[in-house]
Amino acid sequence: MTRPPTAAQRRIIDAAEPVTGRLTGTETQLAALVKRGLAFRHPRPPHAHFLTPAGHRIREAPPMPETAPAPDPPAPADSGVFAARVGGEGVADDGPARVREVHSAWQGLLELRRMTNPGGAVDRPCGWERTHLVRAAALALEAAGHRPAGAEGGGGYRVRATPQPEAVAVYEPDAEALRACAVTLEKAGWQTGEHTDPRTRERYLLASPRRA
Prior knowledge:
By secondary structure, the chain is an alpha+beta fold. Helix content is 35%, strand content 13%. It is built from seven helices and six strands.
């Protein structure tokens, strides 16, 4: 059975950039994570280190108990992890700090596209986005300045999962704002189509990541 990471290694994993999984540490620390299959060294300069899928799973799992307490208590699994607003979360801070956080997350996602898409293409979604459809679409919308709906409904977008593979539904009560969401998603590498819910007659977008 694979040994859990040490307390120091766990802190490095927990501190990885939320979207890209980029790691910060000494060469010795990073090399140890690579040896254990929890990180990889990117072949292109500046040869940064990033979490592997196994490393991501450890970061998302609760910390394992240790025989001796660590100097600092480990952070919860979701602590410090950026979450794009999908709509309906309720009252949230929209100040400069949130704007910077969203911008940083979007730039990190573009970098992840560059690193993982064939040819370094940044004009279409990457594998991470295809496995986190709702969060990826919401990040594209929020980064472009669209406002998510509040907890009580009203104006603003709502991104929701659908039974269709690789597709999300984007709702926005204002027709013009819905079309603007479509433009934003298409610029971000998604393909969209406008539909009407047969039960509620509500218009919505069906959006899926473009492959080529």
